[in-house]
Amino acid sequence: MQSAIAQRLEAVLGPSHRRGATLRALSVEGVSKRYGETQALNDVSIEFEPGTIHTILGENGSGKSTLLKLLSGIVQPTAGRIMLNGNEIRPRSPLDMQSLGLDTVFQEVLITPYRSVSDNVLLGYDGLFKRRIPERLRDATAKAALDALSTSPIDLDELAGEVPLAMQQLIVIARALSKLPSILLLDEATAALDYGDRDRVFDVVTDYARAGNLVIFISHRMDEVKRLSDRVSVLRSGRLVDTLQRAEVTSERLLKLMAPEAVLHA
Predict the structure, then answer these.
(1) What is the chain's mean pLDDT, rounded?
(2) pLDDT at residue 18, as a whole number
């Protein structure tokens, strides 16, 4: 089964441009991360299932951003293992993880402002000395990815730094999806979007997961968590509190897991 965005891209590029191995399983086992005296993560074990949207939820300081950085290859664990398809992996950079089929959309909108929208969508595709996508197909590839996500037409030749913030966010999401990663990490990736574009992105992401990919989602918005999540792992003070299945997810239960003292006080 193919996702709709994969069909769009393969209509332009053919089936051979996807990177990384086919995903069978991703997990973290007993992962800890210490920064000096600060224990950001403490013995966290989570299994992520292909074909699902798995949300990481927690208050500020809970460890969810540290977990995202570990999975993205930005930092390395102090203890524990990251397992992909039954093998331990030790990424040293985001490029290492991209080569394994994982891509991340961070909360910060990361664009090159003085390059075109099209060039920004395709950042990361090319090698050091050779373009991976032929010149004649570059705009068509960028358009295929953006059209799947946006409810409005986009000028591919416009400088990315001159388009609205919401459009810049769509460019970054399109950049990640255009690589067709087996694992897509989204860190508050819809915060800058209006409701129309947010709903469109949610539809694309849900379809992408249903096609057998894994989407790991970080959001503080309870409506997003309940709408998208197949599973929710709640972190508190660097520890895993619980992992809930979709049928178990309610606002009250999530709040109690995240901040039991606040619920008791209320």
Answers:
(1) 89
(2) 59
Residue 263: which region, alpha, beta or left (left: phi > 0; alpha: psi -120 to 50)? alpha
- What amino acid is encoded at 204 in this protein? V
Sheet holding 26-35, edge to edge: 38-48, 26-35, 79-84, 87-89
Distances 19 to 4, 104, 115, 220 between C-alpha atoms, Å: 18, 14, 24, 30
- Cβ pair 152, 199 in contact under 8 A: no
Tell me, what amino acid is at 27?
S
Query: Could you tell me where the DSSP H helices lie in the chain?
Result: 4-13, 64-72, 94-99, 117-121, 135-149, 165-178, 195-210, 222-228, 251-258, 260-265
pLDDT digits (tens, 9 = 90+) for 81-128: 999 999 999 988 888 998 899 999 988 888 999 999 999 999 887 655
Which residues on adjacent β-strands are paired with residue 186?
105, 217
Hey, which residues does 44 pair with through a beta bridge?
A: 31
Q: Which residues pair with 48 in a beta bridge?
A: 26
According to CATH, what is the number of the domain 4-265?
3.40.50.300
CB 12 within 8 A of CB 141: yes
pLDDT of residue 130: 61
Token pair for 192: 């800058």
| Interatomic CA distance for residues 54 and 177, integer angstroms | 17
Q: Which residue has the tokens 């003070």?
A: 237
Q: Using CA atoms, how far apart are residues 217 and 186, in angstroms rounded to an integer?
A: 5
Domain boundaries, the chain: 4-265
Residue written as token pair 């224990």: 39
User: How far is Cα 266 from Cα 255, in angstroms, rounded to an integer?
Assistant: 11
The dihedral over CA atoms of 4, 10, 16, 17, expressed in degrees to the nearest 10, equals -80
